């Protein structure tokens, strides 16, 4: 009989108790009544639409910015811009997201951006995108920078001798080679965006039908005492997250298989 | 003519190039033989424009190109391990310079024929053997209509038996160009197969020698000093 390690004894019960059990607690508490009420609620579908649209644009912006960071990483790693950007990549990870939301509110709210409207950019869908972007961008930047690290610099040097300036070499040689990392960065950024609550609620607000996203919908339903609706919306979120994880894993497997055949 | 005058390059306190001067004439394949760590890769990077020298000049045909970026130097570069673009086919790799208005379809067909690459044009580089990858890298550089060719250990991935076939082919093609060619290697035998003139690089300094055999003695001496 196989001898069980102390690490297995430690890991298995804690994993099931602290990770799997809470997820099952949501699924197990979904009721038919809660499902009917939630799926009949147009505000829920607005929150779903808002979540998907804003997370998509936040991830898109995140990947574009991350590609810019990758350019600095490859061509200007000694510059002050790169060093600040590299340092700041870790900031949103350590920062409480309420603080991030407040920072965005002060930077883009009515005080500084009052010329746009009475609240500046705050409490609009743009604010939701910016809040999601602020917390998810580092994931895309890290993913792309670590993939860029793997690229053979000689390919870039050769492209330069064949007439490419740094921008052309980046677009024609580096970006195609970063394809997999761009996809992973997008999915990770999108996943992080749909789960964001604190920064979104601080800067984007929680206006049902307007800036409310799934995370804030769940919060509102709990506050209103509509627990069965909160549970249904949460189960929907879990399903969405699982789908993203499955997509990412399938893509990773496909990539590994094609790399093996190469 | 490719000319480098009094090139110096240091990394922190480490002096890699200590006043290197070379001149390569059109129609000449000058081979630079050096051990690993002798500074030959740094010299290659300074010549291609990847690195700026601390001091000294590089010129082609009398034009000072020291301040020019790599894309404006028109140096055909074949690196160690070939650095083919993995996401492109052999055809797309070789035609790459045409995206920047360099070379022509006509040259492409000529070079592909000369290097017997026709059957492999639609292949991705990873499917080719080391020898054919080296041919594609050479073809790509040749299509760019270079003023100078610089090859840095271009057939490292090729075994000795195949080198005996590929080196005369490379020599023939390079001599037809009638432009200055600098070929960098650590292998005196390889140097003898391809070169028309020879240099030895030791500790960031270059010495002209009359035959690659002289390099054997110098390199053996260097290895003895380094305790290898």
Q: Which sequence of SSEs, written as H and E, runs from N to C of chain B? A: EEEHEEEHHHEHEHEEH
Largest sheet entry of chain A? none
Distance between the termini of chain B: 37 Å
The proportion of strand residues of chain B reads 25-35%
The count of helical stretches of chain B stands at 7
Uncertain parts of chain A: none
- What's the alpha carbon Rg of chain B, rounded to whole Å? 17 Å
Overall CATH architecture of the largest domain in chain B: 3-Layer(aba) Sandwich
Nearest-integer average pLDDT of chain A = 92
What is the number of E strands of chain B?
10
**Largest sheet geometry of chain B:** 6 strands, mixed
CATH superfamily of the domain at 43-213 in chain A: MetI-like
In percent, how much strand structure appears in the residues of chain A? Answer: under 5%
Secondary-structure blueprint:
The complex is a heterodimer of chains A (262) and B (228).
Chain A: H1 6-28, H2 32-39, H3 42-75, H4 80-89, H5 91-94, H6 97-108, H7 110-113, H8 125-150, H9 153-161, H10 166-177, H11 179-194, H12 198-203, H13 214-223, H14 227-261
Helix pairs in contact in A: 2-14, 3-8, 3-11, 3-13, 6-8, 8-11, 9-10, 11-14, 13-14
Chain B: E1 2-11, E2 14-24, E3 29-34, H1 40-48, E4 55-60, E5 63-64, E6 75-78, H2 90-95, H3 105-114, H4 130-143, E7 148-152, H5 160-177, E8 181-185, H6 188-194, E9 197-202, E10 205-209, H7 212-225
Parallel strand pairs in B: 3-8, 3-9, 6-7, 7-8
Antiparallel strand pairs in B: 1-2, 1-4, 4-5, 9-10
Helix pairs in contact in B: 3-4, 6-7
